[in-house]
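Continuing from the previous page...

OK, I double-checked the sequence for Lipoprotein against my notes and this is the correct one:
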Amino acid sequence: MILKTAFAIFSTLILSCGTAEKQKQTNTTSQTTSETTSTTVTTTNNEIMNSQKMKAAGYKLGTIEYSDREGDCPYTIKMMSDAKEFYYLDPTNLEENYKKDGQKVWIKFNGLRRMNRCEKANPVELVDIKKGK
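Thanks. Re-ran it with the corrected sequence; updated structure tokens here:
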């Protein structure tokens, strides 16, 4: 009985050591491959990775839009909800350096419970904003 238990433990240790060695070799190969690949990464891949990081951090991508029509908000942020659907936000605290028509921005925001300043957009307070690409 003791001999069987000792054999089982010994076998497990030997098998796990071999697996760790293989994992180490695989990780080294993966690192070498990823280092080689990272030097040839295109701008598009970087943008996708940045996009994924921003979304993971809670940011949403939008586009600043300017309007000079009467009764309309001067600056709104057009947000995409689906491939074809979009909605507008009315940032009450948009900084001057972001007031450029067509500029892409990553934002975090809180909705405001107040009356809308314009029909098409909901008022929000920007918590954080970063320039997008």
